Amino acid sequence: MGIVKTYIKLSNPRFDEIDTLVVECLVDTGALHLCITESQCIQLKLEESDKRPVTLADGSIRQLPYVGPIKVDWNGRISYTGAMVLGNQCLLGAIPMEDMDILVHPAQQKVIANPLHPNIPASIVY
Q1: Percentages helix, strand, coil for the chain, rounded to the nearest 5?
Q2: How far is CA 18 from CA 13, 30, 70, in A?
Q3: Contact indicator for 78, 10 with CB cutoff of 8 Å
């Protein structure tokens, strides 16, 4: 599978007066968290709750700022989550994707709503 990107809206649910950001993000089903840039964090006035140790793709471990809350909107499907501040591009990981009930369609190389729940996101609770 190649590189998949999509557009999402990011906003700070604590401050309605702050403009929503529409950002292109890399979709990575192998990553867990939403990662945002430092600039996006500043624009949304997100507060750092702590620093968390994370293992990067190269195996190195770094302490990264964990910020939030952040509202993620993909085509009207909403997730409220935290985000790691890292890099120069937004990255959409599995946790917010699961929350919004969206998938990567490998043949089409794009993000789609779960075909089992095309009209409204659904979850499984055990």
Answers
A1: 10, 50, 40
A2: 9, 31, 12
A3: no
Is pLDDT above 80 for 77?
A: yes
Please report the DSSP string for 76-120 in residue order.
TEEEEEEEEE-SSSEEE-HHHHHHHTEEEETTTTEEEE-TTSSSS
Q: Which of 9, 73, 5 is nearest to 40 (CA)?
A: 9
The helix or strand, by DSSP H or E, that contains position 6, with its residue range, turns out to be strand 4-11
Tens digits of residue pLDDT in 30-66: 899 999 999 999 999 999 999 999 998 899 999 999 9
**CB-based burial label for 23 (10 Å; 0-12, 13-18, 19+):** middle
The pTM assigned to this predicted structure is: 0.93
